[in-house]
């Protein structure tokens, strides 16, 4: 494997959710690179059913933080990107997930932390839509906080970290089958 390949694998394997950020802005050129990566996300029939709203206003960050059940950390982030997906009638959460993961990986490649906040109810998405003036045709499924991770502070409760072992989540050949 190339060094570049192993670096990329390490980046992907090490991607974690940041929830505590330093009070330091995201450089504009980094943000533009992240948006450019996001633009190239794949979608069914290349429909690109999304619109991204860049939020940097402190008061707006605080309002967004109150829109989701577990979105409070957005208030302490220097900025976020709210992802709106055209709907209904699309696998909106799927489109949102692909886009988000790319944003998070691009941020990590630039040395930035990122964290997803999910707006799980129609009511919460309505509040986000109203705040940002989004048209009703867009579902704002999530916001991704971006910034420099405050590594001196804990990012999550222990139960929110770690992963199941591979044997628990992978079968070979048939459900329940073991690796040969
Ligand atoms: C669909 C989805 C929704 C999530 N929503 C939230 C959220 O609202 N608030 C939050 O703090 N983390 C949220 N997360 C992040 C997860 O809590 C996190 O990825 C998981 O606990 C694993 O943590 P780690 O990636 O830091 O190891 C979400 C993740 C996904 C995939």
UniProtKB/TrEMBL annotation:
Residues 18-62 form the Nitroreductase domain. InterPro entries: Nitroreductase (IPR029479), Nitroreductase-like (IPR000415), Nitroreductase/BluB (IPR050627). One of its GO terms (molecular function) is oxidoreductase activity. Keywords: Flavoprotein, FMN, Oxidoreductase. CDD domains: Nitro_FMN_reductase. The keyword Amino-acid biosynthesis does not apply. The keyword Translocase does not apply. Pfam families: Nitroreductase. This is Nitroreductase. It comes from Ornithinimicrobium humiphilum. The lineage of its organism: Bacteria, Bacillati, Actinomycetota, Actinomycetes, Micrococcales.
